[in-house]
Amino acid sequence: MEDVIKIVATENARCDKFVAENVEGVSRSYIKKLFDEGKVLVNGAPKSASYKLKVGDEIEFNLPEAEEIDAVPEKIDLDIKYEDDSLLVINKPRGMVVHPAAGNFTGTVVNAVLYHCKGNLSGINGKLRPGIVHRIDKDTTGLLVVAKTNEAHMFLSDQLGDRSLSREYYALVHGNIKEDSGTVDAPLARSENDRKKMAVTYKNSREAVTDFFVEERFGAYTLVRCKLRTGRTHQIRVHMKHIGHPIVGDKTYGVKKEEFNLPGQLLHAGKIGFIHPVTQEKVYYYAPLPEDFEKVLAILRKRGGE
Q1: For the chain, what is the mean pLDDT?
Q2: Which of these, 129, 144, 248, 273, could form a disulfide with 125 (CB 3.0-4.6 Å)?
Q3: pLDDT in tens, 260-274
Q4: Looking at residues 8-17, what average pLDDT do you find?
Q5: Which pLDDT value is given to residue 162?
Q6: How far, in Å, are 76, 140, 145, 216 from residue 80 at the CA level?
Q7: Hey, which residues does 182 pair with through a beta bridge?
Q8: 166-273+286-306 maps to which CATH number?
Q9: pLDDT above 80 (res 40)
Q10: According to the model, what pLDDT value does residue 286 have?
Q11: Which CATH number fits domain 68-162: 3.40.30.10, 3.30.2350.10, 3.90.1150.10, 3.40.50.300?
Q12: Average pLDDT over residues 123-139
């Protein structure tokens, strides 16, 4: 069974580039294969990858039905902050993807917890995301709660939905934020220019609200604590850029020239709180800043606020 993909060109661009940026879940290598085999039609006729689209051109091609790939258990060390029969809370390191996806089928949090829990995880999110209640970005560090039972998963998901599951992040941002606190209320959606990015927009967007609190100032940088009211993809990263203070080390939304040689953004999910699905008690868990984050702060503190 094949899925028919139809999109309309919204800009004058190379056909392969436009398709790659506007169709999710398809690799560039697979798109190249489609063009090489003459399977991409523009206004009903096969076109090459380099064909220059005109606004309004209709692009059509077929995608075979995706085969579901089971995540496999892998023996990977986990920093577990809490665990019982219904859930576990882990401190995810930088560079680790939460669940398997195109290009990352191994070495993920899911692979690690499958091994650790001997496969005893909630199955609500399917075979590629067992137990995953919420996510954080690959290069964001910090706390994740993983459900072992379907009952725990549903209970925790309900708290995400009604916003009673609390999450607080620490971020080092560029610039001196003069206010001691503030709120960014700016809706988010996929960027029309780059489908891999999110953007502040009022077109087909969803509500996104972030509260921030200044923890420490370093002149050219500010350490902030961010509290999510909503949980959109890349929310804090896009919101901080939106107010003119992108996160240090952010290779997608940050500045071009960074002072520090970092592998990713200095954004850390340091606190999570929720009502436990079994005890019905409100619980909180904390994770210290990672070593590279602390090293940068130590440099800035030694330097002073000039």
Answers
A1: 89
A2: 129
A3: 999 999 999 999 999
A4: 89
A5: 84
A6: 12, 17, 10, 29
A7: 212
A8: 3.30.2350.10
A9: yes
A10: 97
A11: 3.30.2350.10
A12: 82
pLDDT digits (tens, 9 = 90+) for 154-182: 889 889 888 899 999 999 999 999 999 99
CB neighbour burial string for 118-153, b if at least 16 within 10 angstroms, e if fewer: eeebbebbeebbbbbbbbbbebbbbbbbbbbbeebb
Q: What are phi and psi of 152, to 5 degrees?
A: -65, -40
* Tokens describing residue 295: 């090293």
Where in the chain do CATH 3.30.2350.10 domains reside? 68-162, 166-273+286-306
User: Dihedral of CA 39/40/45/51: which sign?
Assistant: negative
List every span in the chain annotated with CATH 3.10.290.10. Answer: 2-64
Q: Which of 114, 145, 125 is nearest to 276 (CA)?
A: 145
User: Burial, 229: exposed, middle or buried (Cβ in 10 Å; 0-12, 13-18, 19+)?
Assistant: middle
pLDDT for the residue 208: 94
CATH number for the segment(s) 2-64 = 3.10.290.10
Phi, psi angle pair for 248, to nearest 5°: -60, 130
How many C-alpha atoms does 247 have within 13 Å on its Cβ side?
Answer: 29
Angle between helices 15-22 and 28-36 (to 10 degrees): 140
Binned at pLDDT 50, 70 and 90, residue 52 comes out as very high
| Catalytically annotated residues | 137
- CA 172 and chain centroid, separation: 18
The pLDDT value given to residue 294 = 97
CA distance linking residue 260 with residue 292, whole number of Å: 10
Q: Can you tell me the mean pLDDT for 87-92? A: 97
